[in-house]
Amino acid sequence: MGHDQTSAPAEIPYLNSLNIAYVIHKYGQPIATRTGSYDTTLMWFRNGVFIGARSDKVYRYGIFDVTRIGN
């Protein structure tokens, strides 16, 4: 998982500071979205990438097991 304090994993592109619209354009509509406090949004995409965005900018991201969505 990448976040503000470490570099991106080699397996996925660097996503920090990108806006949500760009990530949706790149990966398609998310399969799940959850909003939180402090203008935070979490999104999971079909390719196994998830992002955490605050005020429309990605601040963390990583990969997940797509088969576990909804569990």
Structural write-up:
This protein is mainly β and 71 residues long. It has one domain: 2-Layer Sandwich (Beta-lactamase Inhibitory Protein, Chain:B, domain 1). The protein has 1 helix and 5 strands; from the N terminus they run βαββββ. A 5-stranded antiparallel sheet has the order 1-5-4-3-2, with no helix packed on it. β3 (40-44) and β4 form a beta hairpin. The chain is globular and about 30 Å long. The model has no long low-confidence stretch (mean pLDDT 84).
List keywords for this structure.
single chain, 1 helix, globular, mainly beta, 71 residues, Beta-lactamase Inhibitory Protein, Chain:B, domain 1
What is the strand and helix layout of this fold?
Elements: E1 2-3, H1 20-27, E2 32-35, E3 40-44, E4 49-54, E5 57-63
Antiparallel strand pairs: 1-5, 2-3, 3-4, 4-5
Quick description:
This protein is mainly β and 71 residues long. It has one helix at 20-27; strands at 2-3, 32-35, 40-44, 49-54, 57-63. The protein has a single domain, classed as Beta-lactamase Inhibitory Protein, Chain:B, domain 1 (2-Layer Sandwich), CATH 3.30.1450.
In round numbers, the mean pLDDT is: 84
What form results from the Cα inertia axes? globular
Distance between the termini: 20 Å
CATH-defined architecture:
2-Layer Sandwich
Number of domains: 1
What is the CATH top level name?
A: Alpha Beta
